[in-house]
Design goal:
Blueprint lengths: L18 E5 L1 H4 L3 E7 L3 E2 L4 E3 L3 E8 L2 E5 L2 E5 L4 E4 L5 E5 L5 E8 L4 H13 L6 H10 L2 E3 L7
């Protein structure tokens, strides 16, 4: 439901995943915003490509190492990285301190992927089924891309 009424999303009392959807496009009239706390020396997602949306990451603290296409970026505090749809990308926190960042998705809709993924992971005993993860990604127009991990 879209709203013209001001609203506040409180900070969580505890964090259960590195990524959190702060506000989805339905509530905000089309903007999707999330935040992340990624521990030191931690990989992000495997290299992949989005077919439906662009992504942006604004770093608050720490350094995000990202590869977008054939370019490598070291994104520090106060910097913003734009990752256009159709470009393979991956990222990681290769540093020795936690990374804090804000992410946006344009157009909104992909944020529902994180909800479905969390629900799936909570329903499994043991490691996730790679085929189930692949199918979930494909439903959202996200496909694996060639290239090594960063970590």
């Amino acid at each position: 439901m879209s709203t013209a009424t001001p609203f506040l999303v409180e900070a969580p009392t505890e964090r259960t995943t590195p990524w959190r959807v702060v506000v989805d496009g339905q509530r905000s009239r089309g903007m999707s915003l999330g935040d992340a706390v990624i521990p030191p020396r931690t990989s992000g997602p495997t290299r992949h490509v989005h077919t439906r949306e662009d992504e942006g990451i604004y770093v608050i603290d720490g350094v995000l190492t990202a590869e977008v296409g054939d370019q490598r970026f070291e994104v520090g505090p106060g910097a913003f990285l734009w990752m256009p749809r159709g470009r393979p990308h991956t990222f990681a926190n290769l540093g020795d301190k936690p990374l804090r960042a804000v992410g946006l998705i344009n157009p909104s809709g992909f944020e529902q992927f994180f909800t479905e993924l969390a629900d799936y992971l909570a329903s499994t005993d043991g490691p996730p089924d790679p085929d189930a993860i692949l199918q979930l990604n494909q439903r959202y127009g996200v496909y694996p891309a060639e290239g090594p991990p960063l970590l």
